[in-house]
Input
Amino acid sequence: MEVTLFLSFIFLFLISVIGLGLFAGFRLLHPKRVRLEESLKAQKESHEIPEPFWKQTPEFFRIDSDFGYKLTGNYIRGTTNRVIIFCHGISWNRLGALKYMNYFLENGWHIFYYDHRGAGESGGTYPSFGRFEKFDLGKIVDYALALLPKTETIGLHGESMGGATVLQYSIMDPRIQFIVAICPFTSLKGLIRFYMEKLYIPRPIQPIIRVVINSYLYYYGGFSTHDVYPEDDILQSPIPVLLFHGKKDAKVPFEMSQSLYRKRKEIYPTEFYASETSGHTPGLYFDLREIIEEKTKAFIEKYQN
Output
C-alpha cells in the first residue's frame, strides 16, 4: 500500500513538472499578437510618438523571408546617406520603434522598421527570440542597401527581444557600424532561469523543466535555448555597442547587460547607461526619454564613421 502511494506521488509529481514545462514552452511560442491599430492607439495615448513622425509619409514594403513567409515593414525616406533599422520587442510590432525615432527624423536618416516573424502583419507562426529573426534582419539590411546603394552609415536599434536580435546579428554582417540595444537579454537559457527563480520553482526540479521546455521549443519552433546566446555573438563582434537597462527591470534581468558591458568594454567599444529607478521598456523610455536621445546622439556621432 505504501509503495503504491509512493509511486502514485512520484507519477503525479512528474506529470505536474512536465505539465509546467509544456505550459512554459507554449507561452514562449504564443505571445499576444498585437494589431497595428491597437498599438498605435496605445502609443498615442501615452504620448510616445515624436511630433516629426506625423510629418512623414512612410512607404510600405513586403519582402520574402528565407523561411517561407513575408516580412512587412515601413520605410521613411531621409535626406542623408545614413540608414537606421529598428527591431521591436516580443508581444509588440513595428510601431514600437516610433518612440526612438526623433533624433533620426530630425537628422535626415533613412528609417526602416518592420514586424518580426509571428508579429504585426508579418507571416510566420512562432517567435524564436532571435534564432531565426537574425536571418530575417539580414533580409531587411540587404533590402535597405539595395534600395540605397550610396549608404555610408548603417546602424541597428533594438529593444528587448529586438535588442537580443541585433546582438545576435552583429557577428553576421561587417557592414553594420553601430548597435543600440535597450534592455536586451543575453541568454535565453538564463532568461528562463530568471523566470523560474521569480516563480520560486525549486532548483532541484528546474533542470527537468528546462529539458521539457527545450523539447517543446525544438519540436514546435525548430530551435532550443542552446541556439540563443546573444552574449556569445556580440563578444565576437567589434561593432560599437550602446546598452541601456533599468536596474528594476522585472522582465529581463539588469545583470545581463551589466555583465555584458563588463566583459566587452575591455575588448571592443561598448557604452552602457544604467537607470537606478527604471524597469523594462517602454517604462525605461518614459523615465529617460531625453537621456536616451542625448546618449544615442553622442554615441552615433562618435562611432558612425
In short: The two ends are 76 Å apart (CA to CA).
